[in-house]
Write a structure and sequence with these properties.
There is one protein chain. Helix content is about 35%, strand content about 35%. The chain contains nine helices and 24 strands. The chain has a six-stranded antiparallel beta barrel. A six-stranded mixed beta sheet has the order 19-20-21-22-24-23, sandwiched between helices. A four-stranded antiparallel beta sheet has the order 12-13-18-17. Helix 2 packs across helix 3. It is elongated and about 100 Å long. It starts with a helix and ends with a helix.
């Protein structure tokens, strides 16, 4: 919730306008080696898309530095957050993006003011960056594991890496089976426990391709690229921030796998402390369940829940039968006789799910009849019409539904002996039932 709030706050700056900012300076990124810069010079300030000399307290804006430890959003990794400070003056960085060769620090002056030329201390929020690094490194292990288990047709189609989780889109035509899910998760955790060294090296792009480095989907590369290697398991081009060894990730767990487009699947996962937190919540649920069921054994808990579900279904069916029986006796008394035929047109006080059973029961008790039952709910109306076989030459159930459907804006249909529909204007149900009765009486007379 906090990250969502920060994202919404950052969105106030309308990140698209950074493309309009005229910034000639470049920012040297020092965030691979450090999370803090003591001497970062403010080279430009913007309020909206207009350059300014000073940002004052509570003003939102953009700060451009000559050097920064803040990672700018790219390659699926979110931009860093943190603080820029000068004595008692504080600028809170809510997001970091790129505009050309410059890193753009989006945020708000919390205390005091900052001016162009000021020398500030730039400090990245460490826990957030560390958690993001774990998730980013895990995406590389995940990519390699997917290719190994599903096949080399797997290619990255997009990703999102933040402090909470990782999201990875990849080319594949079918949902993961239970075994594939388990094997992928197991393989990634094996490589984490192996504590592989994570190495980075700057190389010429052609040289990087020769050593088997995979390029990331949607990224643009220059002549010189950064190659990230995790033991002999994964080699990719990546400019993001990463752990020193795979063991720093701690543990990896898949949480969801879905299809997002034709031939494209999406995996979501968590690592490190987030997995521990998830496990603790699961244990709390298990303890609560054990206390409620008075059973500690997991297998017996499942058996007990299945028994309770079966009992509930049986009880629901029994209640439905009793409700139908009670309604049946009452409704039979309301039937009218038209030319030796029984006619029943009525709004029922029951659930829509019981209408069909109730109509069939009434039909069985009235062997020469036309029945129309309806239920009014909050935002819809349900209607069912039945006609005994000995009357379908005079009137048909689907014709009754067709006659009254426009009144309640209903859609539906059926056959001569039974038809039903659902409408979106329940407030006109009484009008529809009156029209149905008039139509039936005319046909029978």
């Amino acid at each position: 919730a906090k990250l969502r709030q920060q994202s919404q706050q950052a969105s106030k700056f309308d990140l698209d306008y950074t493309q309009q900012l005229k910034i000639d300076s470049a920012t040297q990124f020092s965030g691979y080696e450090t999370l803090q810069e003591d001497r970062a010079v403010i080279s430009a300030l913007f309020k909206g898309n207009q350059p300014v000399n000073t940002l004052n307290a509570d003003e939102e804006g953009v700060v451009v530095l000559d050097r920064t430890p803040f990672y700018a959003e790219s390659g699926g990794q979110v931009g860093d957050q943190g603080l820029l400070t000068l004595d008692t003056n504080v600028f809170e960085v809510c997001d970091t993006t790129k505009a050309g060769a410059a890193h753009i620090h989006h945020g708000v002056i919390r205390v005091g003011s900052l001016s162009v030329g000021d020398v500030v201390q730039a400090e990245v929020k460490s826990p957030t960056r560390e958690a993001t690094k774990r998730n980013h490194s895990a995406t590389h292990l995940l990519h390699a594991a997917l290719r190994k288990i599903l096949g080399e047709h797997v290619q990255q189609k997009g990703s999102l890496v933040n402090a909470e989780r990782l999201r990875f889109d990849f080319s594949h035509t079918a949902p993961l089976s239970n075994d594939e899910w388990k094997n992928i998760e197991t393989l990634v955790n094996e490589k984490i426990r192996a504590n592989l060294l994570v190495e980075t090296k700057l190389m010429k792009f052609d040289e990087a391709k020769k050593v088997g480095a995979m390029a990331l989907f949607g990224e643009k590369y220059g002549d010189e690229v950064r190659v990230l290697k995790m033991g002999d398991f994964s080699v990719e081009l990546c400019g993001g921030t990463h752990v020193t060894r795979t063991g720093d990730i701690g543990v990896f767990m898949l949480t969801e796998e879905t299809g997002i487009a034709a031939g494209v699947r999406r995996i979501e996962a968590i690592t490190g402390a987030a997995v521990i937190e998830w496990m603790q919540k699961q244990e709390e649920k298990n303890q609560a369940l054990a206390t409620h069921l008075k059973i500690k054994d997991d297998v017996k808990q499942v058996e007990k829940i299945l028994d309770l579900q079966d009992s509930e279904k049986a009880a629901i069916k029994m209640v439905e039968r009793l409700n139908i029986q009670l309604a049946l006796e009452s409704l039979l008394k309301e039937a009218k006789e038209i030319n030796a035929s029984k006619v029943l047109v009525v709004k029922c006080e029951c659930s829509a799910s019981l209408l069909r059973n109730l109509a069939e029961s009434l039909k069985a008790r009235m062997p020469k009849s036309v029945i129309v039952l309806a239920v009014k709910e909050v935002d819809k109306a349900s209607i069912i019409a039945t006609v005994t076989d000995n009357l379908t030459d005079k009137i048909k159930a689907n014709d009754i539904i067709k006659e009254i459907s426009p009144i309640i804006e209903a859609r539906g249909g059926g056959k001569a002996d039974m038809a039903q529909a659902g409408g979106t204007k329940p407030e006109k149900l009484a009008e529809a039932l009156a029209a149905a009765e008039k139509y039936i009486v005319e046909k029978l007379k």
